[in-house]
Amino acid sequence: MANFFRRFFAKRQTTVQIERDGGFVDFTLPITHFDKTDAGTLVVTAQASTDEGTIGFSVVIEAEWKQKEASPGLTLFWGKASVLSTGADSNRFLAFLAKEYRLDAKPVMNGATPVTIVGLGSDPREVSTTPAKMKIFFEAGGDENYGEAYINIDLRKKALEFRDKDLDYHRGILASLTSDT
User: Can you tell me the distance from the alpha carbon of 109 to that of 97, in angstroms, rounded to the nearest whole number?
Assistant: First the structure.
């Protein structure tokens, strides 16, 4: 199945879709690569064209999940993930994000940013057949680097959404993703 997804997503790239509303910035990037390892780890890469060049990053979602019923009818799936740099595309993504957030950021994205992730009523392990709606927690580096956002992955639509949760988290998201070097 992994070979099917590699062929299906190979070399597909379009422009980023941006939605702005009262300081909130949500955007959708086309998924260009998806792989599910034998151990169950998910790797999703998204890239898009902008006026400044191609932007992109990868998300690696670990296989282990803790299922917890939050309320009747709402099951949460807690897990670990990393946002990975894909090189120059990710550095441009960081600059793009800073520009959209109207904040300054160093021009180099971390190689890997560990995050906590929670599936909101959808089981991320089933992303091959069902869209995954997830909240992502940027926690590395203390309170000044704390932020939350939503990442939704829909393989049928070949789309990764990066959605704002709260304007106050913009600075923490950028700080978490920015390399110290």
Answer: 11
